[in-house]
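Entry type: protein chain
Record version: 2
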Amino acid sequence: MRNSETGEFELVVGNSQLLSGFFIGVVLLGVVFALGYVVGQNSPRTAKLAVEASGAGGATSGDARPQPASPAAPPPAAAAAQPPTETASDAEPQPSTQPARDATAPVAGPALVPQAELPAGSFWQLSAVKQPAAEVMRQTLRDKGFPVLLSPAPNNLVRVLVGPYNDTATMGRAKADLEKAGFPTPIKK
């Protein structure tokens, strides 16, 4: 309706127009939330979320977690071309960036160690995965200086165990080192 004095138009919105606008807004929000839910369900999960969702604790998929990159070694020709700056007797021992190894921990071979034959002490279980993934995890842990054993688990899985540790202080340091190295929170076994 036009106001004759000012020349402006006045819009009158009734109840039916207000309710229609409200319901259209609700429907649009519902569509947006539904699309968000569908996208969230179809996106890949991270390893940590998969562990929490499964409720299994240590049973993770070794393939879902990114593996740390191995340090790049200088080319052999470049290393041979550089003259040595110090002799072995003059060099001071360098601090190690690797976690301290427990002297009583055996270095595991390629075979699985049955539960009954595990050495005395406590272990950290990182995961229970298929044999190939367990071998990859064992090699990665060995490269980082951790004592690792593989033990059979139910459902054709293999437990990845770090240890044995004989005291709680050493176990605590090992747990902190594992978490700092990017491995999931271990379970005490």
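Comment: The domain at 55-64+101-189 is CATH 3.30.70.1070 (Alpha-Beta Plaits).
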